[in-house]
Design brief:
The protein is mainly α and about 230 residues long. The chain is about 70% helix and about 0% strand. This is Androgen dependent TFPI regulating protein.
Length: about 230
């Protein structure tokens, strides 16, 4: 087998394995629907109130790796296809920065005080392996993707940041977290209740700057790994 064919084979196996892993996680999450929730899991708003569930299901990890697996089956110059360009955009602007952000923020808060983000009572509902599936393994899988395939990043101008920020803040923060708070007066993430109004705005802007930094980091990692092949 030629080196190029071997690389393509490894890439295809990687994408199918990653997609299957996320499909398995989503199935296990769906199987939890209807079970009695322990204290510490806020029911109102459903699982979509948590960024981690949205991160797994909606246009991010599972969708990206599914598209990547389909793209591997395309004959000819895959990099020039519309599917490949969309896949690269999805990875660079959404999957890598948001997925990495979830891992870093979750474990930073967890290390400080887990009750602010993932109360101990949740362990009786979500087993530890599922917690790591949602909040740990996401990052090494994304880094593995950087190593197995080059991704064409949009030019580093304000334009690619707009859809990223729209998705991350409008769809998640304003449409879910703040909506739930305005409806019932309870923050789905206890940490947010520790902030004053100006502090909350500052926290959101800080998160925005971290996500943008992670976008730039992904671009730099891809450039260093693949160089002129991009």
């Amino acid at each position: 087998m030629a080196p190029t064919e071997m690389t393509s084979a490894v890439r295809g196996v990687y994408h199918i394995t990653a997609f299957s892993w996320y499909a398995f996680i989503v199935k296990n999450l769906n199987d939890k629907d209807g079970e009695d929730l322990p204290p510490g899991i806020f029911v109102y708003g459903g699982p979509w109130k948590y960024l981690t569930f949205l991160n797994l299901v909606s246009l991010l990890q599972m969708t990206f790796f599914g598209l990547a697996a389909v793209n591997d089956l395309q004959p000819g110059k895959k990099a020039e296809s519309t599917l490949s360009k969309f896949k690269d955009f999805l990875f660079s602007v959404f999957a890598f920065p948001v997925g990495t952000f979830v891992v870093l923020l979750f474990w930073a808060i967890f290390a400080y005080d887990r009750e602010l983000v993932y109360p101990a009572t949740i362990d009786t509902f979500f087993p530890p392996w599922m917690n790591h599936a949602m909040h740990t393994f996401v990052l090494p899988i994304l880094l593995g993707e950087v190593l197995v395939q080059p991704h064409a990043y949009p030019q580093t101008k304000p334009k690619p940041f707009f859809p990223l920020l729209f998705f991350f803040y409008t769809m998640n923060i304003f449409c879910r977290i703040i909506w739930v708070y305005m409806s019932v007066g309870i923050w789905v993430y206890p940490l947010l209740g520790r902030f004053s109004a100006p502090g909350l705005v500052g926290f959101f802007f800080f998160n925005m700057s971290v996500v943008i930094s992670l976008y730039l980091l992904g671009n730099e990692l891809s450039r260093r790994v693949w160089g002129k092949r991009l």
